[in-house]
Amino acid sequence: MSCSITLKKISYKNENRQLFSNIDLNVGHQEKVAIIGANGVGKSTLLKIIAGLKDSYEGELQLFHNPILSKKEYNKFRSDVGYLPQDVNDYFLCPIVIEDVMFNLRAKGMNKEEAYHKAILILENLGISHLKSRVILELSGGEQKIVALAGILITQPKILLLDEPTNALDFNTEKRIIDILNSIKKSMIIVSHHKSFIEKLAPTVYKLEKSGLEKI
Ligand SMILES: Nc1ncnc2c1ncn2[C@@H]1O[C@H](COP(=O)(O)OP(=O)(O)OP(=O)(O)O)[C@@H](O)[C@H]1O
Ligand SMILES: [Mg+2]
């Protein structure tokens, strides 16, 4: 199987305790998997490891069959990975919605008109065009989450790591996000507590325990 993400015997210890160990996982090309588990078991921490935001873990992370042994190596793949954090508060780089959604395209050198056009399209797709000129700090939690998602999807990463993407969304918005994520043919790891959301999106579900990931 062609894999986008491979974890081999990943273990992580924070200052106080061993969080988890023996995490093995293969996420195939365009495969969608969900990870569930109790509060505090380490789901967000595991996603941060895969997102290249933690380096004090044991075991091996591979992206597209390339062992990632250093930050420098991770950086070669960083633009292939779109990471939506559980808490998007500290995530935004610009004060206004449209500017933030355009930011990564502008950073890659795209001209302003083209980046603006693409940002408008993604806001329309996500049903949040009306938020275009709003101050991000003045948006609700759910609105911020979907703006953050727009900023990720616009760069068309090959892998999506989504940490509780629907935890603050109303029923209709959640439904729209399910349809959009279902229509995207990418490798995805989705962490969620929402059983119905997972059922509609991810055929493969794992439960994170201290001693490893169990397929359920
Ligand atoms: N920055 C941090 N400093 C110290 N401990 C942390 C930090 N971030 C997380 N932890 C601890 O690590 C453990 C795992 O946290 P993590 O956020 O990965 O859990 P989770 O499974 O995502 O939980 P939830 O379902 O509540 O989101 C928790 O005990 C948490 O208190
Ligand atoms: Mg979490």
UniProtKB/TrEMBL annotation:
By its UniProt entry, which InterPro entries does this protein fall under?
AAA+_ATPase, ABC_transporter-like_ATP-bd, ABC_transpr_CbiO/EcfA_su, ECF_ABC_transporter_ATP-bd, P-loop_NTPase
Top-level taxon of origin: Bacteria
According to the UniProt entry, its GO molecular function terms are: ATP binding; ATP hydrolysis activity; ATPase-coupled transmembrane transporter activity
One Pfam family per UniProt: ABC_tran
Alphabetized, the UniProt keywords read: ATP-binding, Nucleotide-binding, Transport
Annotated ranges, domain ABC transporter? 5-216
Q: Which Gene3D superfamilies match?
A: P-loop containing nucleotide triphosphate hydrolases (3.40.50.300)
This protein's GO cellular component annotations are: ATP-binding cassette (ABC) transporter complex
Q: Which family, according to the similarity comment?
A: Belongs to the ABC transporter superfamily.
Protein name (database record): Cobalt ABC transporter ATP-binding protein
Organism of origin: Malaciobacter molluscorum LMG 25693
**Annotated gene:** cbiO
